[in-house]
Write a structure and sequence with these properties.
Blueprint: H1 4-19, E1 48-56, E2 69-74, H2 87-90, E3 96-98, H3 100-112, E4 118-121, H4 127-139, E5 146-150, H5 156-161, E6 168-172, H6 178-185, H7 190-204, E7 208-210, E8 213-223, H8 229-242, E9 247-251, H9 272-285, E10 289-291
Parallel strand pairs: 2-4, 4-5, 5-6, 6-8, 8-9, 9-10
Antiparallel strand pairs: 1-2, 1-3, 7-8
Helix pairs in contact: 1-4, 3-4, 8-9
C-alpha cells in the first residue's frame, strides 16, 4: 500500500532541509559549515553512513512485537557523550556509505523480515538524506510505523517539520543541568533544546497502543548515571509536570564505556541503592512505562554490534 500522505509531507520538506547542508544548522550545534565540503561536529559530511541494521529485540516492549524493531544505526552523532556505548561508530564515521536508494532498500528488507517498525537511531545529522530514502521506501510499499530515536538534542522547528511523517518519538532526557551536560557531552545548552523539542513531540503524538504495539506516541528515555540520583529525580519530576501521559523508560544499562574513566564519579555502574531509590520514585510519581532491570544484558550495547549485513542491501 502506497502511503501518499507521508510521501506528500516528505516532498514538502526534503529539499529545504537538504539545502541547509550547505550551511548546516540542522541541530543545536549550529556548525554553519558546508557539509558537501567539510565534516560537522557530528563527524560526517554529505554522505550517509550506516554502521548496522537488524531486528532489535532490546527496545521497549511495544516496539518489539513480532520479530523486533527494524533498527538502523547511523554513524556519527551530534551529541557524543563521553560514556557512549555506541562510541565505535557514534564518535567516528565507522560504517558503510550508502545511497538514498540503498537506505530505502534496507528499510524495505527489514519490513520483509517482519520488523514491527523502522527505528532510526541518531538520524538528525542525516535528516535530508533519510527523508529522500523514506520517500523511495514509501513509494515501494513501506507501511510500518516510523520511530525517530534521538538523544533529544534537537531543534523544535526541525521536530515540527516531522509532523505527519514520524509515528513514534523515542527520545532521551539525558540531563536537566547545563553543567552536567557540558561536562559529559560538551552541550551546556542541552536542557533548553531538549525540553523544548520534547514538548513539541508530546504535543504531536499522544500514545496509541494497538494490541500491545505502539503505533503512535512518545517514549521518553532516561539513562541513569551513577552518582547523579538527584539529577534523575529532577528529570522525573519535570516529566511528571510537563508530559504526564508520555510513556517513560528508565534505563540502568550504564557501563563506563569509552572515556568515562576520565571522570571518577561515573567510572562505575549504578549501585543497587541508587537503583532502589529511583525505582521507588518512579512508583511514587506514577509514571507510565518501564523500569529496566538492575543488571540488563550487556550484549545489547553497541560495542557488540556486528557491521551491516549484505543481505539487507539486496
Amino acid at each position: 500500500m502506497i502511503n501518499s500522505r507521508k510521501i506528500k509531507a516528505l516532498e514538502k520538506i526534503a529539499k529545504p532541509l537538504n539545502d541547509r547542508l550547505k550551511e548546516c544548522d540542522l541541530c543545536p550545534r549550529n556548525c554553519k559549515i558546508d557539509r558537501f565540503k567539510q565534516k560537522g561536529f557530528c563527524s560526517v559530511g554529505s554522505q550517509m553512513i550506516i554502521y548496522t541494521a537488524f531486528l532489535h529485540t532490546g527496545e521497549e516492549p511495544p516496539l518489539i512485537t513480532g520479530k523486533g524493531s527494524g533498527t538502523i544505526f547511523f554513524s556519527g552523532c551530534n551529541l557524543k557523550c563521553c560514556y557512549c556505548q555506541n562510541y565505535k561508530f557514534s564518535h567516528t564515521p565507522e560504517g558503510r556509505i550508502v545511497s538514498e536508494e540503498e537506505c530505502g532498500r534496507i528499510m524495505l528488507n527489514l519490513q520483509k523480515k517482519g520488523a514491527a517498525n523502522i527505528n532510526l537511531v541518531t538520524p538528525t545529522h542525516y535528516l535530508p538524506l533519510i527523508l529522500n530514502a523514506l520517500r523511495i521506501a514509501f513509494k515501494n510499499g513501506l507501511d510500518i510505523p516510523l520511530v525517530y530515536n534521538t538523544s533529544g538534542y534537537e531543534k523544535t522547528e526541525i521536530i515540527r517539520r516531522l509532523k505527519g511523517i514520524v509515528d513514534v518519538y523515542l527520545a532521551d532526557v539525558k540531563y536537566i543541568s547545563g553543567e552536567t551536560a557540558g561536562k559529559y557531552s560538551r552541550a551546556e545548552n542541552y536542557p533548553f533544546y531538549n525540553q523544548e523539542s520534547l514538548r513539541e513531540m508530546y504535543r504531536q503524538k499522544p500514545a496509541v497502543l494497538d494490541a500491545d504495539t505502539l503505533k503512535e506516541g512518545l517514549i521518553v528515555r532516561h539513562l541513569v548515571l551513577p552518582g547523579h540520583s538527584e539529577e534523575t529525580r529532577q528529570i522525573l519530576c519535570w516529566i511528571k509536570k510537563n508530559m504526564p501521559d508520555a510513556l517513560v523508560s528508565i534505563m540502568f544499562q550504564y557501563q563506563p564505556y569509552f572515556e568515562a574513566a576520565k571522570y571518577p564519579e561515573i567510572n562505575r555502574i549504578v549501585s543497587l541503592e541508587e537503583f532502589t531509590r529511583i525505582k521507588e520514585l518512579v512508583d511514587e510519581l506514577g509514571l507510565p512505562g518501564w523500569v529496566q532491570e538492575y543488571t540488563p544484558e550487556e550484549k545489547l550495547a553497541g560495542v557488540y554490534f556486528e557491521p551491516l549485513s549484505e543481505d539487507l542491501l539486496e
